[in-house]
Write a structure and sequence with these properties.
By secondary structure, the chain is α+β, with helices and mostly antiparallel strands. The protein folds into 2 domains: about 1-100, Orthogonal Bundle (Arc Repressor Mutant, subunit A), CATH 1.10.10; about 120-205, Alpha-Beta Barrel (ADP-ribosylation fold), CATH 3.20.170. It has helices at about 30-45, 60-70, 80-85, 130-135, 155-160, 175-180, and strands at about 1-5, 10, 25, 60, 95, 100, 120-125, 145-150, 170-175, 185, 190-195, 200-205. It has a 3-stranded antiparallel beta sheet with strand order 2-1-3. The longest helix is centred in the N-terminal third of the chain and has 17 residues, at about 30-45. It is globular, with a radius of gyration of 19 Å. About 30% of the residues are buried.
Length: about 200
C-alpha cells in the first residue's frame, strides 16, 4: 500500500520509516499493484495500445497517460500516479516537466539518452545453466531492448536471485568495452544498460 506522511511525503507500507507516522491512505495493496502494472505496461511494453505517442527516447505526454489511466480505473488520478512514482525504491520512472518515461525495462524499441557509464567494472548475475553460453557468446537482451547490468556485486546478486537460487556472477570490464565502442548508459545508481556485451569483456567473478 501507499500512504502519505504529513512530514515526509509518500511511502510504501504501514508507517513512515523516518518518523513512524501512519499517515493517510492513498492506494491500498490491490490498487498499488494494478496501477503499477498499468504504468509498467504503458511505458515499457504497449504504449500504442493505449493511444500514447512515445518518442524515440521513451517519453510520453503525462496528461495523455493520466487520461488513459482514468479511462481504465475510475478511482485513479494524477496524485495516485505520482505516489507510485515517488514511492518506488527502484526508481523505475522519471518525470520531466509534462513528460514521463520508464528508466529501463523496455520491450518496445527506444533509444535512451542517458549519460555514458563512468564505472570501470560492472556485474551480471546468471544461472548455472546459462553462464557458459553467456561467456561464449556474450550477453544479449532477452525480451527487452537493453541488457541490464548492475553497478555492484550485491545488486547483481539481488537481481539474479529473482530467477535462480544459486546465481553465478559475471564480471564485466566496462572500461575496456567502452574504449572499444560498446555503449553503456547509466539508467539509475544501480543499473547500467547496454545493447550487447561481447564475450571478450566477460569473466567469472
Amino acid at each position: 500500500m501507499i500512504r502519505k506522511c504529513p512530514n515526509h511525503g509518500v511511502f510504501r507500507g504501514t508507517e513512515c520509516s523516518k518518523c513512524g507516522e501512519t499517515g493517510s491512505l492513498i492506494l491500498d495493496n490491490e490498487q498499488t499493484e494494478r496501477l503499477g502494472r498499468f504504468i509498467s505496461g504503458a511505458l515499457r511494453h504497449f504504449p500504442d495500445d493505449l493511444g500514447l505517442a512515445m518518442n524515440q527516447h521513451g517519453w510520453v505526454d503525462l496528461d495523455v497517460l493520466c487520461d488513459a489511466m482514468r479511462t481504465r480505473y475510475k478511482w485513479a488520478n494524477k496524485e495516485k500516479l505520482f505516489s507510485i512514482i515517488e514511492s518506488d525504491e527502484k526508481k523505475r520512472y522519471e518525470i520531466l516537466g509534462r513528460k514521463i518515461r520508464a528508466r529501463y525495462g523496455h520491450s518496445v524499441d527506444v533509444d535512451l539518452d542517458y549519460t555514458e557509464n563512468a564505472l570501470p567494472e560492472l556485474y551480471y548475475g546468471a544461472s548455472r545453466e546459462e553462464v557458459d553460453i553467456l561467456l561464449e557468446k556474450g550477453i544479449k537482451p532477452v525480451k527487452q531492448r537493453y541488457v541490464h547490468t548492475s553497478t555492484s556485486v550485491e545488486k547483481a546478486l539481488e537481481v539474479a536471485r529473482i530467477h535462480t537460487d544459486d546465481p553465478i556472477l559475471i564480471h564485466i570490464d566496462a572500461a575496456e568495452a567502452q574504449r572499444n565502442g560498446i555503449r553503456m548508459l547509466s539508467a539509475t545508481e544501480y543499473i547500467v544498460l547496454s545493447e550487447w556485451i561481447p564475450p571478450q569483456y566477460l569473466r567469472l567473478l
